[in-house]
Amino acid sequence: MLVEITAVIRRDKVAPTMRALDNLGLGSMTIATVSGRGRQGGNIMTDIDREVPAEYESVSKITKHLTPASFALSHSLTRPVFWVPKRMLTIVVPSPMKDDVVDLIVSTNKTGWMGDGKIFVSPIEESLRIRTGERGTSSI
User: Fold this and answer.
1) DSSP for residue 83
2) How far is residue 68's CA from residue 92's CA, in Å, rounded to a whole number?
3) What residues have CB less than 8 Å from 69, skipping those under 6 apart?
4) What's the pLDDT tens digit per position in 60-85?
5) Which domains does the chain possess?
6) What pTM, to 2 d.p., does this model score?
7) Nearest CA to 123 among 94, 103, 101?
8) Which residue positions in the chain have pLDDT lower than 70?
9) What is the Cα–Cα distance from 53 to 9, expressed in whole angstroms?
10) What's the pLDDT at 138?
């Protein structure tokens, strides 16, 4: 059985996380640039999301592009919504490795500050390598 582990992490934690996973023998992963908001409501402040500079380009984006934030400013919403830049790491591992990988991601990314991220674990029904036709754990 395989599991997919998806972690949304701070941008400055990608390299340490990749090194830690490499040291565990897991070099295959997918990383995507994502934006979102959590409990902090998308507020970008140095004490919430430390790797985002205080002079983040939110103000220029509001005036140049139609975004949820610019919509909020021109309408009667209470405050603009800012999307916080993050990285989404996806890795598929055999289910016996799940706890080790999750623990490793948590220990590498935990700062104790809001915005440390989120991890999702999902079962994978099947895995297939397109080039060779391999299936199951040999295809990851």
Assistant:
1) P
2) 34
3) 58, 61, 62, 80, 81, 82
4) 344 444 555 555 555 554 555 577 88
5) 2-139 (3.30.70.120)
6) 0.72
7) 94
8) 40-81
9) 17
10) 80
